[in-house]
């Protein structure tokens, strides 16, 4: 267990395998299966260039985690990483026949073509909505890779050595309730340290919140939690408010979901003896909660004001010195409720270089000037608040996210617009001043280099496509979009295809993933210099 000492100190930085890598991170943003397919393409390009091993972290949110966690932990279903991430197809070969062919089952992108809707409807007949959501996500994106079984809950761990060390310190080591090696899933070797972000919405009071006060909840194979400590009064539409301690420490994943100690004292990094919690599938919970976008939205729906178990829940207690509040059920929500990029966790860890994959549905307007009207029709809405430019939006809370000076926002937008006008990948590399942010526990007075990789149409890529595919892309981006490439590459997050939730066609998966792979290969010198 690790406690907040006022300055974030993350335990993985004491590990040689992490510390020996360059001070770099890759953010895989949220955005449903659009973000999943884009992430697959970018990872495939980085793998092709041998750059994965030069990343210290991946930080994923929502749909980005649907790619990052299988990539970090896969056990079965593929023979190697190349089979998992699929073959690289040059744009000239992306004709209708190649695009629409059935996807190989080992290919991670094939998961995006499964019917998540059908899995969810089947599970919701048996479980409460929150648990049904988690199971459906796990069945869709984890099960075929040996990472989920409804009756075999497991906890992630960094290595076989780390797993064996946990097993050796059990007291006593051999009882009917003792952990065994089968209770863990080991991360694949030579991977960046993976972070998946969800959020703690508030105690499960069977009642809607008046105001959202979400707190980051970060899942890793070494710990789960949030280091900055907060005291929050949760105001509900019925009854009194609830004053709660939130955050303040990290605990090992296998201990999550059980009762905590009555009191804590001593130094951070101490070992506690706790009762074994009930079986909790950590990877399923991480993916399910990180992508549960509806969790915050339902607090504005009066008809759901008395529902309990409607979203993923966790028995949670905040690690902190002194008397520890008792464990109670908390509602969890999408990491995108507070940070859809996964950038803020990497700024907490004070990296020198960060690549942010902005896998958005909002194409960039090249003729918009920041400060002239609302930004929401012109640029991804999660970007301006990082610079203190904020507009209220329902069901998300971004007003605590400023980490860069406001004056730097217009310069970044101008660089992105220039890249789009130039016909190449929409990428801008900027050195930003980092500002203090007490809520997130981020220290300022330093610089960070950020490569903003913005998902958008790329004229040079489209010019290489077969004529029939070019025509389909144009039709899909007309004022009245038609055909199989509607809104490519910025597909809708929900309902991109009729009667589906997040299901894509093989054509949508291949075209988007290959655009993103092509982007990395086309910008090879840039990515090699960044990493």
From TrEMBL:
<dbReference type="GO" id="GO:0004623">
    <property type="term" value="F:phospholipase A2 activity"/>
</dbReference>
<dbReference type="GO" id="GO:0005829">
    <property type="term" value="C:cytosol"/>
</dbReference>
<protein>
    <submittedName>
        <fullName>Patatin-like phospholipase</fullName>
    </submittedName>
</protein>
<dbReference type="GO" id="GO:0046475">
    <property type="term" value="P:glycerophospholipid catabolic process"/>
</dbReference>
<dbReference type="InterPro" id="IPR016035">
    <property type="entry name" value="Acyl_Trfase/lysoPLipase"/>
</dbReference>
């Amino acid at each position: 267990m690790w406690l907040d000492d006022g300055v974030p100190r993350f335990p993985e930085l004491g590990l040689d395998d992490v510390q020996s890598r360059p001070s770099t991170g890759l953010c895989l943003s949220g955005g449903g299966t659009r973000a999943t397919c884009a992430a697959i393409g970018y990872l495939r390009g980085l793998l092709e260039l041998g750059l994965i091993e030069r990343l210290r972290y991946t930080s994923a949110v929502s749909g980005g985690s649907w790619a990052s966690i299988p990539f970090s932990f896969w056990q079965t279903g593929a023979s190697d990483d190349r089979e998992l991430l699929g073959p690289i197809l040059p744009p000239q070969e992306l004709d209708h026949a190649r695009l629409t062919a059935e996807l190989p089952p080992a290919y991670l992108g094939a998961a995006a073509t499964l019917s998540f809707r059908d899995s969810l409807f089947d599970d919701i007949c048996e479980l409460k909505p929150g648990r049904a959501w988690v199971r459906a996500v796990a069945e869709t994106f984890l099960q075929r890779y040996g990472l989920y079984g409804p009756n075999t809950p497991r906890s992630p761990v960094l290595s076989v050595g780390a797993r064996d060390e946990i097993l050796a310190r059990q007291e006593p080591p051999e009882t009917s309730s003792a952990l065994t090696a089968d209770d863990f899933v080991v991360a694949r070797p030579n991977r960046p340290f993976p972070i998946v972000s969800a959020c703690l919405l508030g105690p499960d009071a069977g009642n809607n919140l008046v105001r959202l006060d979400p707190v980051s909840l970060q899942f890793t194979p070494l710990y789960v939690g949030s280091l900055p400590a907060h005291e929050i009064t949760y105001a509900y539409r019925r009854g009194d408010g609830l004053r709660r301690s939130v955050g303040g420490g990290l605990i090992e994943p296998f201990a999550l979901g059980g009762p905590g100690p009555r009191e804590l004292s001593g130094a951070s990094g101490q070992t506690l003896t706790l009762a074994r919690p009930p079986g909790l599938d950590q990877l399923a919970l991480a993916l399910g909660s990180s992508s549960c976008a509806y969790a915050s939205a339902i607090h504005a729906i009066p008809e759901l004001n008395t529902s309990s178990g409607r979203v993923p829940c966790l028995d949670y207690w905040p690690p902190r010195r002194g008397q520890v509040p008792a464990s109670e059920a908390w509602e969890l929500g999408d990491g995108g409720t507070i940070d859809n990029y996964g950038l803020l966790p990497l700024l907490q860890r004070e990296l020198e270089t960060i690549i942010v994959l902005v896998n958005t549905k909002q194409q960039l307007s090249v003729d918009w000037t920041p400060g002239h009207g609302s930004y929401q029709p012109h640029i991804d809405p999660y970007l301006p608040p990082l610079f203190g430019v904020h507009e209220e939006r329902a069901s998300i809370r971004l007003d605590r996210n400023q980490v860069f000076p406001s004056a730097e926002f217009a310069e970044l937008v101008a660089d992105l617009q220039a890249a789009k006008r130039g016909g190449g990948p929409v990428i801008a590399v900027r050195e930003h001043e980092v500002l203090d942010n007490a809520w997130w526990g981020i220290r300022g007075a330093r610089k960070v280099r950020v490569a903003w990789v913005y998902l958008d149409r790329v004229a040079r890529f489209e010019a290489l496509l077969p004529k029939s595919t070019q025509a389909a892309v144009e039709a899909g981006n007309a004022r009245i979009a038609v055909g199989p490439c509607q809104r490519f590459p910025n597909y809708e997050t929900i309902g991109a295809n009729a009667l589906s939730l997040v299901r894509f066609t093989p054509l949508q998966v291949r075209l988007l993933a290959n655009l993103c792979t092509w982007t990395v290969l086309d910008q090879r010198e840039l990515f090699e210099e960044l990493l």
